[in-house]
Amino acid sequence: MPTELPTTTVLPPSRIDCQFAKSLSGGPSLDSLQTTDRPPRPRSFREQTVARHKPSIDRLEKIYEYKQVDPEYKSRRRLNSCRTNATIVQHQDTHELRVAFRRCNLRWCPMCQSTRRWIITNSVTDWLKQTKHPKFITLTLKSCDKPLEAQVENLYESFRRLRRKNWLARALTGGVWFFQFTYNHKTDQFHPHVHCLVDGDYLPHSKLKRAWLDITSDSYIVDIRRVNDHEKAAAYVARYATAPADLRKVTVPRGAQAIIALSGRRIVGSFGSARGIPLAPRKPDEPSKWKRVANYWMAAIMAQWDPLMEVLLDFLHAPKDNTPPLFDLNRPMPPIMLELDEDPLTWKQALFDFTDHWHFPQPPGEHIDGN
Fold it and tell me: 19 by DSSP, 3-state: which?
């Protein structure tokens, strides 16, 4: 488990910041700036990412702490190490900039879910553009009081039997399926179902309904819709394919039951013409060409006085139409020589909205320590 770096000591502001602040105050006053006027100090990459998903992470930690969900603390250790070792890397040929960091790969981690969501959305959208007759199918089970694990097993087995039907196999050329469940607080029951994006010939709703009823013996609710908007359909699939449910909408005991019931089970898959499309993060092509530029946390700090670091973060935050410069990987870091001031620090706020598809499982190449 990587160790978190301690919070750094407050660095003094530049002389320019001090003079500018004093000019706003109406003269050469030596009074310090009010702390309420100072923006928050730059945070680590993990802290920035966690801040966007804090409610979901807080609920997930409570579920992991519930009874025997995570008795050896393995999942919580992995969750606490997610988005650490953040390093800025650049491609030698294209000069593209990305952020490489450590990922926990936990199914219920909201930060890793956002990465998978982007991948699935783009993969499914590309596949849908090649289909001729895309359809959206939903297969549900009748709600009951059985444990969720038994309901999931019944649903998956019923879905396998349905796909083995000869008439259905001939009608469909391929598809992507994913599992989802909802929870009814009034009846205290789970409601598992399977969604499918498929390509194929006309499917009679009545025939599919009868086949599903024959297989399940008590469930007959089946929905078939034509897909008109490829991107919207792909985004809907990715939203639920990465997370079978929103754990914030279920109680902690029920959330624990869901995590245990789905442990080791696939929640998304493909078949036919959709088989092989990326549904999970993969290592980048030619990883040796991605070279380390700087530690992310240190770059955010140094951008306050280093123009080159500021340009680096500017391209990383909002990619421009023009190609970024090739940053010198071996540029020596100048020693920090700042004159101490009595005025409190005026931090330059570092707000970065990174797209999750820039992320790698871990920094490519050499092992990089630090946060």
Answer: helix
* b (16+ CB within 10 A) / e for 274-289: beebebebeebeeeee
- Residue 18 near residue 341 (C-beta atoms within 8 A): yes
Six token digits for residue 93: 């040929």
Amino acid 253 reads P
CB 176 within 8 A of CB 268: yes
Element (H, E) at 258: helix 252-261
Kindly report the backbone phi and psi dihedral angles of residue 130, in degrees, each rounded to the nearest multiple of 5, phi listed first.
-95, -10
**Parent domain of 216:** 117-272
- Could you list the mean pLDDT of each consecutive 10-residue stretch along the chain, which spans 371 residues? 35 34 37 43 76 93 92 92 86 84 90 88 90 92 91 94 92 92 90 92 92 93 90 83 88 94 91 89 78 84 82 76 71 40 29 34 34 35
Please check whether residues 239 and 342 belong to one and the same domain.
Answer: no
Instruction: Give, for 114, the enclosing helix (H) or strand (E).
Output: helix 110-128
Q: End-to-end CA distance of the chain: give it in Å, rounded.
A: 12
For residue 126, what is the domain's CATH number? Answer: 3.30.70.1910
Pair 162, 168: CB distance under 8 Å = yes
The answer to pTM > 0.90 is no
Q: Hey, which residues does 135 pair with through a beta bridge?
A: 198, 226
63 domain-assigned = no
The structure tokens 């009814």 sit at 184
Distance (Å, whole) CA 248 – CA 62: 11
The total number of structural domains that make up the chain: 2
Statement to judge: residues 259 and 300 lie in one domain: no
